């Protein structure tokens, strides 16, 4: 059956090849597993049908065998009662049931062989699916790690480059220039003081001279005494 061959042909290499072409490995892996689940469901339906055929032939075989055994017993019972004609008829019918048994047994054996093979293939599909699920978890983790690494690499690609260093140098020079301009403005303010400013400053007393004069007077009084 095609669905069985399709699953048997799936290998790790084919998955990796698919991922190489996929834009989003995680989405592709999920879709891949979904396809496999659908194939398994189809296979389960096919296996169920074959098992039904097997069971049907098995029932017919058992019925034919029962009739063979019954007619044998009935023929013997007829002979015990000296009814040879009835025994003959029972054995004739037994022969027909024996032929039917042989035919049904042959069909049953074929059906059972097919059903057993399909059961085995279905189990192989399920085992393969389980392996792919485990493989998916590993691949998803690797994909997420690679995505994070790529994002970090992209973020750091412009970190500490010549452009950034030159930008810092420009800002440093600008700060130095601002400081120089502030100092120059201070000096300019000092050099531009008017005569009135200086005279006004002379009249200012911060109290130190008064305190010093008081201390001198106190010391002179102490010496006189």
Task: List descriptors.
single chain; 225 residues; mainly alpha; 2 domains; 7 helices; 0% strand
Quick synopsis:
The chain is built from seven helices and no strands. It is mainly alpha-helical. The protein folds into two domains: 156 residues; 56 residues, no CATH class.
Task: Provide an overview of this structure.
It comes from Paenibacillus thalictri. Helix 3 packs antiparallel against helix 4. The chain has two domains: 2-157; 169-224, no CATH class. It starts with a helix and ends with a helix. Helices cover 89% and strands 0% of the residues. It has helices at 2-8, 12-21, 25-80, 84-156, 162-191, 195-202, 208-224. It is rod-shaped. The model has no long low-confidence stretch (mean pLDDT 81). By secondary structure, it is mainly α.
Please specify the SSE layout and strand pairing:
Layout: H1 2-8, H2 12-21, H3 25-80, H4 84-156, H5 162-191, H6 195-202, H7 208-224
Helix pairs in contact: 3-4
Low-confidence stretches: none
SS field, number of helical segments: 7
Q: What is the typical, i.e. mean, pLDDT? A: 81
Shape: rod-shaped
Oligomer classification: single chain
One letter per element, helices H and strands E, the order comes to: HHHHHHH
Q: What is the strand content?
A: under 5%
Keywords: Coiled coil
Region (Disordered): 176-210
Protein name: PspA/IM30 family protein
Biased composition (Basic and acidic residues): 183-207
């Amino acid at each position: 059956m095609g669905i069985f061959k399709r699953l048997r042909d799936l290998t790790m290499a084919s998955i990796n090849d698919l991922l190489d072409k996929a834009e989003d490995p995680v989405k592709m892996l999920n879709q891949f597993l979904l396809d496999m689940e659908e194939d398994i469901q189809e296979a389960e339906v096919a296996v169920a049908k074959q098992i039904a055929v097997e069971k049907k032939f098995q029932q017919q075989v058992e019925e034919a065998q029962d009739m063979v055994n019954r007619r044998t017993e009935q023929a013997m019972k007829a002979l015990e009662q000296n009814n040879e004609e009835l025994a003959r008829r029972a054995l004739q019918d037994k022969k027909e049931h024996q032929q039917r048994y042989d035919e049904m047994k042959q069909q049953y054996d074929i059906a059972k062989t097919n059903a057993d093979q399909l059961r085995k293939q279905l189990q192989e599909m399920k085992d393969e699916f389980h392996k792919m699920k485990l493989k998916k978890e590993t691949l998803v983790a690797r994909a997420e790690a690679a995505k994070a690494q790529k994002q970090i690499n992209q973020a750091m690609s412009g970190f500490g480059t010549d452009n950034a260093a030159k930008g810092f140098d420009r800002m440093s020079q600008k700060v130095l220039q601002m400081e120089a301009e502030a100092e120059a403005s201070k000096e300019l303010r000092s050099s531009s003081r008017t005569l009135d400013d200086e005279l006004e400053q002379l009249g200012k007393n911060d109290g130190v001279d008064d305190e010093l004069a008081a201390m001198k007077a106190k010391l002179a009084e102490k010496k006189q005494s």
